[in-house]
Structures are given as structure tokens and as C-alpha cells.
Write the C-alpha cells for this entry.
Amino acid sequence: VGLTELVRRTGSGATIDALTVRENDVLALIARGLSNAAICDELHLSIKTVEPVVSSIFAKLGLPTDSASNRRVLAAVMYVRAADRQVT
């Protein structure tokens, strides 16, 4: 299954618009390829603050917890697609 198909299947109507401002900030950093630890450094937050935000992003975007997919990559693709739609 290609990445596009996987995003289509897992997104199931989920939208970036459902995210809070903090979740959007964290998702933008995920899309840049930052780890949770790097996100903590960038936003001056503790890991105990960032990890629940990341989990909330995955839940709101309807991303699965199975080992067959990488939720960080899927979330980043959804973020980039949403940004592309806003530009056009």
C-alpha cells in the first residue's frame, strides 16, 4: 500500500482544523522531522508536556497504533497536504 493510500485510509475524514494551536505547533515540528526531545527543546517544554500532545494529535487525526504504519510520517504528510490546500 502506498503512502497516499495509507493516509487516505487512516485519515478517515480527520482534519488538521480539529487541532489546537499547541497541537498545530507540535505537528509543524513533527513535519520538520523533529523528535519529541527536539520539540521539547524548540518549544521549551518538558517531555511530559510534549508526549501527550503528540498522542492527542495522532488520536484526532485518526492515525492507527498498529506497527504497520509510522504515525509521525502519516501526520507529517497530512500536515503538508493541509498546508498545500491553504496555499492553492
User: Anything to note?
Assistant: The chain has a mean pLDDT of 84. The longest helix spans residues 71-87. DSSP finds five helices and no strands in the chain.
